[in-house]
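User: For my dataset I need records formatted as: sequence, then structure tokens, nothing else. Please produce one.
Assistant:
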Amino acid sequence: MAKIERFEDLNTWIEARKLFQIINKICQKPQLKKEFYIVSQIKSSTISIMANIAEGFGRYGLKDSKQFYIIARGSVAETQSHLYVLKDAGFIEQGEFDETYSQTVFVNKLINGLIKATLKNINASTHERINT
């Protein structure tokens, strides 16, 4: 396994970026040109996923990192909700919805892995401090 030195090395961030690329492509559809509000909302929530993963990685404290990963997970849920709006309003078909939603689920699972790993490291460092 390659050493993770930058947030760009995190598979979680890479997959979140893929999600943004999918969302960005959807938002470029001609029928969405006049739908500024939903386009702005779904792009913002998807960008927030990437940004909070990066910011969490860049924090020195593990508790800070965990909090940003939790915020990223919330942004995934927001993006999922916006996808329903796009589907219900007829801007995307069921197949496109399913494919995109599946990517959100995958990103969410990866974020959960980051949170669990961070919690494990928090617990390990707390245990070390107690025993020293």
